[in-house]
């Protein structure tokens, strides 16, 4: 006797895969569960009746897609009455009916932190928020026409390039107003969501948790545009919690003091340049004294120079023995160079 399938498993499979298979979802699901097309079409019909799916076209030209359950937009004045917790509670939270609590908590943290940044740092007179939700994802956009986050940091820290501002921002504990902020909001928000993006001036920065915790930086070929736009996306079935993210970067479990940071080394590169100099390494090392542990991520960095590696893995480590420097995602060439400068070998590693 065959095992009876749970209809909810079939429905979940359809919902999770329909975006990639809008035309052949019935065939895909039939093959996955060994059921007839007729049975699968019955499941699709029930999902449409529940308002989770919608379709266009007929018979073989029929295309299915997830229905937007929420599509909310609002332009809000940034004035003395602007309170991010009130915006969340009165305008956004009612749109989260049916979403798991851990996902709601992440959305609340991210939205209120980004709105607070607009209020305290942007100089904008208004902010635009856009909340979209379907059966699998929550998307949130916060956009202002203020001074621009990278420009603001660049000027406040007297940096030569806005891309350097992005490198500093990725480390965390960076704020242009230390009397009111700790500089942790963007750091933690970018690690809670499945995708977190910032568009400002000519820069586009994205962090994707899957696949492989990717970091992307693009320089747009366009005139600088005032303001900042933040994009946040999370899957509704995510098991991640705010507590897990806080604890990952804390010194001890149950201790939420921010003492560990994760730095994407590729953000230290400007264009196609190679990471070879001590000055480049010193840009990476800036403000490391604020942390107990630093994880250097070499994803998308194929090689580094001897001086760059020596400054970080020998000079800085010897002078700061209380700071733990770790590295991940190193290519074989990067790994060789790190090992060489760490061991004080008499000659550089072979490139063969």
Short description:
By secondary structure, the chain is of the alpha+beta class.
C-alpha-based Rg, rounded: 24 Å
| Inertia-based shape | globular
End-to-end separation in angstroms reads 60 Å
Helix-strand category: alpha+beta
> Class of the largest domain in CATH?
Alpha Beta
CATH topology of the largest domain: Heat Shock Protein 90
The strand order across the widest sheet is 3-4-5-9-6-7-8
Number of domains: 3
CATH architectural group of the largest domain: 2-Layer Sandwich
What secondary-structure arrangement, pairings included, does this model have?
Blueprint: H1 7-17, H2 25-33, H3 37-49, E1 53-56, E2 63-66, E3 70-77, H4 84-92, H5 101-122, E4 126-133, E5 137-144, H6 149-156, H7 162-171, H8 185-192, E6 195-200, E7 203-208, E8 214-219, E9 228-235, H9 242-248, E10 250-252, E11 255-258, E12 260-264, H10 278-285, E13 293-297, H11 306-319, E14 324-328, H12 332-343
Parallel strand pairs: 12-13, 13-14
Antiparallel strand pairs: 1-2, 3-4, 4-5, 5-9, 6-7, 6-9, 7-8, 10-11
Helix pairs in contact: 1-2, 1-3, 2-3, 4-5, 5-8, 6-7, 10-11, 11-12
Would you give an account of this structure?
The protein has 352 residues and is of the alpha+beta class. It folds into 3 domains: 7-66, Winged helix-like DNA-binding domain superfamily/Winged helix DNA-binding domain (Arc Repressor Mutant, subunit A), CATH 1.10.10.10; 70-244, Heat Shock Protein 90; 259-343, Transcription Regulator spoIIAA (2-Layer Sandwich). 37% of the residues lie in helices and 23% in strands. The protein has helices at 7-17, 25-33, 37-49, 84-92, 101-122, 149-156, 162-171, 185-192, 242-248, 278-285, 306-319, 332-343, and strands at residues 53-56, 63-66, 70-77, 126-133, 137-144, 195-200, 203-208, 214-219, 228-235, 250-252, 255-258, 260-264, 293-297, 324-328. The strands form 4 sheets. The chain has a 7-stranded antiparallel beta sheet with strand order 3-4-5-9-6-7-8, covered by helices on one side. The chain has a 3-stranded parallel beta sheet with strand order 12-13-14. The protein has a two-stranded antiparallel ribbon with strand order 1-2. A hairpin with a 2-residue loop joins β6 and β7. α1 (7-17) crosses α2 (25-33), α1 crosses α3 and α6 packs across α7. The longest helix has 22 residues, at 101-122. It is globular, with a radius of gyration of 24 Å.
